[in-house]
Amino acid sequence: MKIDHTATVLKCYHCGQTGEDTLWVGDKPFCCYGCKAIYEILQENDLCEYYSFESTPGVKGILADDTYTYLDEPDTRKKIIEFDSPDFARVRFQIPSIHCSSCIWLLEHLERLSKGISKSEVNFLMKTVAIDFNPQQIKLSQLAHLLTRIGYFPRISREKETTGASPSKALLIRLAVAGFGFGNVMLFSFPEYLGLDHSDHTLMRMFSWLNLLLALPVFLYSASGYFLSAFSSFRQKQINIDVPIALGLFALFSRSAFDIISASGSGYLDSFTGLVFFLLIGRWFQSKTYETLAFDRDFKSYFPLAVHKRVATELKPTVIYELEKGDRIWIRNREIIPADSILLDEKAYIDYSFVTGESRPEKVLQNNVVYAGGRLNGQPVSFVVNKKTSQSHLTSLWNHEVFRKTEESKYKKIIDLAARKFTWIVMGLALLTAGYWYFTNPLHMWLVITSVLMVACPCALALAAPFTYGSMLRVLGRYKMYLKNADVIERLAHIDAVVFDKTGTITTGQTPEIKFTGGLSAEEFSWVKRLTSYSTHPFSTLLTKHIQEQALVIVSDFRELPGKGLEGTMEGHALLIGSPAFVGATPIGNSNASYVFVSIDGEVRGYFSIATPVRKDMKAMLGRLDHKCVALLSGDNDSDHDKMTALFPAHTKLLFNQSPHDKLEFIRNLQAQGKKVLMVGDGLNDAGALKQSDVGMAVTDDTALFTPACDGILQGDRIDGLDRFMDLAKASTHILKTAFVISFMYNAIALTFAVTGHLTPLVAAILMPVSSISVVGFSSLAVRMSASRIMSLKK
Amino acid sequence: MNIIILLIGISLTIAVVFLFFFLWSMKSGQFDDTYTPSIRMLFEDKKKKADTNTKTIK
Fold it and tell me: How many folded domains does chain B comprise?
């Protein structure tokens, strides 16, 4: 039987979630004390407009206390605050939970909430709020605490956010100057385009000089990056791709300048400025793509910055890396345990999902070891630090030597090769032709050399890769797959073995499947909910959330028997909820899920089965991967074995009870067989494997929470398109190759014309941006087309 | 034909002014956040109620 949802579903007025116990303020329901508290704060300060922009805009409130006192320690404070003076300070907090216009409104009206705040400004896209405040009236910790109280937890990372002009901003200014020069130079070149140069000589001279004037900032400022890069590569006695570009640009500009100054022509400054403009657009495109995809790879920022250390009878906030063995620490609900420690209190529930990816909290008893990275669920408890953080097993896994993937990108190799060989060839060619023309027709020599240098400059080659991979990264980002950089696309294209993790990857912990088998009335369901709401056991929490029926009955004789279940009496009925042995039922043999039994007045009434379901459309996707799908590595026991056998192709190895190290070894063995491995996982227990694999893909349901060891992040509900993404990566390498061929063709054909003196520098210079644009246009278009073709294939 | 010199002077001046304004807006951070202001302008500042009503969190 399914639960009868007759009772009205009450959505929290603040956060929109349904809660265990509905609390009321006037006619407004709240799911928990946290949300109610936030509402009351807002009401008290006349800020209820917050609820008028969006319905239920809030972030689920959690009652907070003095977590942030460490912010007032001078060292920490210095790292976080942007500007500090005795009566004015500015701080920028990262607040991941900013999500709607109500958030913006509330966070920009902070001054109504507390004295000392003068201004607050939200950057919605960056999810930050910059707050100007008076440190004499409100302390930094109070500020952070205030934000927490209204439901916006600031994420404070020890590493200072980079401030000031970003490289892309400087690039944009360069681009603006180049665009300005390009546009105006073209304008002044019109008479020449139209062949009017004989009509008024002085005017033409003036135009030429104006062009030179306009091109000068482009040459000195916009293009300086190329010259500097070429120069530094000379100093390292190497030649990079920028050398021919710099040489071409230099030749073009100096040739034009010479023409204009010597009054022998009008130069090719339109081509020069246009070239710089398009080259910079390519760069900007690239950096923009990287910027949007840049993600925090700092593992340490996942841990809280400080914990409470017990010194004598006091609690003192202490930075994690200062913790020593033997220190006593006090951890509260939902805090992460910073170092391997021994539990001092009777028991604690530790959620290791951050470390192992398994979502079920583990129960730890007194004097047992708790590992770093676990998150406490429930009552605050005390620990004794067992190992310094740097030595804990988590960091040792993290510090494993599989840190860097050394394999060089192929397209970079091609470009480098082209740059190295091509440059010498081009220069040799230019010299040869110069020699030839010197003897046959010295008048033409300079013209020909310039044409050769300009036409041979492999700019299109340099643009092809960033444009192709850049637009591919964007396309993939639209499908919720975020890759670290363009190299990953290339590696992804060569994958021939895919290895999956189970929990969180194949299955999802987000929507646990809870089914009730048996017979209970609505009233009896409400009793079950009442009883489970008393317990912090993870299954109780799931059930409390799951059951909709509400009741406010008095529970007497409540007892929670660890490892067994709950008991209590309500309205004269004795309820038992828990394991079959505890309730007195016969256990269920086929254990695809976990079972919780319910008995009322000694009679077994049924059971809840709790299972984490397989994600949608997994089977079809795995089928399409077919022989590439090599293995399933699960840290879990094999209770899901049958379900997985049905899901995976027959040849796939299904391995259970795998430790992080086993996973890493498995990947390494595959690689030793010459396979290119894609590891798809979710948790940090895959960290080693994700790093070791050629491409490590982290699957996440919560984009704010990603695993740092990966090469890419894939949103959980898009994993059914994994094979498509691999096809796309493959398609983009084909596109890139075609683009290379096109640009080589351009160069080769144009070069033959140039060498034989049939190509004036003007035509050469026009041909240059045209070839660049056509290559760029081709690659962007081809990527888009192949993306829509591949992604629209039937599933 | 002299008029063309004047026109060129004007057009260049305007172009330079625009370039200058673009660089200025770039540097003053107007392109840092292109989304939030579009929402912020929709907020209507409610008239303040009597001052006795404003409390602060301590």
Answer: 1
- Looking at the structure, do residues A635 and A696 belong to the same domain, yes or no? yes
Closest among A357, A390, A387, A393 to A375, alpha carbons compared: A357
Structural contact between residues A61 and A41, judged by C-beta atoms closer than 8 angstroms: no
Is ipTM strictly over 0.90?
no
Q: Quick one: A82 and A123 in the same domain?
A: yes
Are A659 and A572 in a shared domain? no
pLDDT for A791:
82
Measure CB to CB from residue A146 to each of B8, B55, B57 and give the nearest one.
B57
Cα–Cα distance between A173 and A221 in angstroms, integer? 10
Give the separation between CA A429 and CA A440, rounded to whole angstroms: 16
pTM of the full predicted structure? Answer: 0.52
Yes or no, beta carbons of A177 and B34 under 8 Å apart: no
Per-residue H/E/C for A608-648: EEEECCECCCHHHHHHHHHHHEEEEECCCCHHHHHHHHHHC
Query: What is the rounded distance in angstroms from the CA atom of residue A695 to the CA atom of residue A482?
Result: 12
Cβ-based contacts of B4 with chain A (< 8 Å): 203
Checking if the pLDDT of A152 tops 90, the result is no
Hey, of A101, A109, A175, A213, which one would you mutate to test binding to chain B, going by the most B CBs within 10 A of its CB? A101
Question: How far apart are the C-alpha atoms of A470 and A473, rounded to whole Å?
Answer: 5
User: Which are the contacts of A337, defined by CB distance < 8 A and separation ≥ 6?
Assistant: A331, A350, A370, A371, A372, A373, A374, A375, A376, A383
Q: How many inter-chain contacts (A to B, CB under 8 Å) are there?
A: 65
What's the CA gap between A53 and A106, in Å, rounded?
10
Q: What is the CATH number of the domain that holds A353?
A: 2.70.150.10
For residue A142, the chain B residue with the least C-alpha distance is B58
Do A495 and A626 belong together in one domain? yes
By DSSP bridging, strand A314-319 and strand A328-331 are unpaired
Single-letter residue type at A751 = L
The 10 Å CB-count burial string (b at 16+, else e) for A716-743 is: bebbbbbbbbbbbbbbbbebbebbbebb
Q: Quick one: which H or E segment has residue A29?
A: strand A28-30
CB contact under 8 A, B54 and A45: yes
Q: How confident is the model over A10-53, as pLDDT tens digits? A: 777 877 776 666 777 777 787 777 777 778 878 877 777 777 77
Same domain, A502 and A536: no
Least confident of A14-18, A173-177, A252-256: A14-18
Out of A685, A702, A730, a domain closes at: A730
Query: pLDDT value at position A296?
Result: 32
Say how far apart CA A337 and CA A377 lie, in whole Å. 11
Chain A residues with CB under 8 Å of a chain B CB are 41, 44-46, 49, 101, 104-105, 108, 112-115, 121-126, 146, 149, 165, 169, 172-173, 176-177, 180, 183-184, 187-188, 200, 203, 206, 210
Mean pLDDT within A198-214? 82
Position A30 in a domain: no
Closest CA–CA distance from residue B31 to any residue of chain A (Å): 9
Q: Could you tell me if A481 and A520 lie in one domain?
A: no
Domain final residue pick, A375, A398, A421: A398
Q: Which structural domain, as residue segments, surrounds residue A653?
A: 468-508+614-730
Whether B5 maps to a domain, the answer reads yes
Say whether both A149 and A178 belong to one domain: no
Asked if the Cβ–Cβ distance from A115 to B34 is below 8 Å, we say no
